[in-house]
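FORM 7B: Structural annotation worksheet

SECTION A. Query
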Amino acid sequence: MSAGTLLVIATPIGNLADLSPRALEALRAADLVACEDTRTTRTLLGHHGITARTVALHEHNERAASAKLISVLLQGKTVALVSDAGTPGLSDPGALLVEAAHRAGVRVSPLPGPSAAAAALSASGFAGERFLFAGFLPAAPAARRKALEALELPWPVVLYEAPHRIAETLDDLRARFGDEREVLIARELTKLFEEVVRLRLADAPAWLAGSAHRQKGEFVLVVAPGGAAAPAADPERILKTLLEALAPSEAARLAARITGAPRNALYRRALELAK
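SECTION B. Predicted structure
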C-alpha cells in the first residue's frame, strides 16, 4: 500500500467565511483531522456539517501524536492538519508532524489560507523585500527586553501578543525603538470588533487606553523597519545575547527566526554556550 497524504490546512482566524472551498472539500474527504483543540475544531467542522474524526495534536503531545499519525499515513490514509486558527506551524503546533511526514516519505500538501501575520503585514503599508516573523516575545519583562535588542532590522518585524501583556510590550517597543518609530496594531483581525491602526509608538499607549475593549482580544503588531544601515544578523552574536535571558531552546527558536539560521544547529550551539 502506498503512503497517504498529509494536508496542512489553514483555517479561519475569526471569520468562518474565510475557510476556502478547497479547504472545505479537503476536510470533508479526510480520514482523520489532527487539531490543536478538538473542541474548537469540532465547532468549525460542525458549522459546515462535517463529521470527520478528530485527534488532538498540541504542544504537550505533539511528538507522541505525530508518531501515531505517521502510522496512519503509511496505511494510505489522508490526514488533515489544522490549528485552532490560522496556518499550522506558525506559532502553532504542527511542524514536528510535517517533518516526520517528510522523513517517512509521506506526501505533504499545503492548502494556504488565513494567517494573522500575513494579514497584519498586508495592512501595514511597511514596504520591504522581506520581513521577520518573531511570533510571541518572552513573557518575562527582562527576557522580552533582551529579545528586542536583536530586532533592530531594516525590514518589518511581526509580533503576536496577548491582551494582558500588550501595554507592557508597547512600552518596551517604545523604549527600544523610540517615539517616532511606527507600529501597526491589529486587534481581533477578521472578527466583529476588528481594529487596525498605524501610529507612532509614542501614541500607542493613548490609543490603547482610549477604549476598555482594547485591553481584550488577540493582537498582532508590525514594527516599522529600522535604518537601512542596520548590520547583518550574526547568529552567534544574537544567540549569545538571547542566552543572557532565555533558556537554550527558546534562545535558539528566536535566533533562528531572526537570522534564518538552522534552529537545530543553533540549539546545539546554545547548549554548548550554556555549559
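SECTION C. Observations
The beta strands are 5-9, 32-35, 54-56, 78-81, 107-111, 132-136, 157-161, 182-187, 195-200, 219-223. The two ends are 48 Å apart (CA to CA).

SECTION D. Sign-off
Analyst initials: ____
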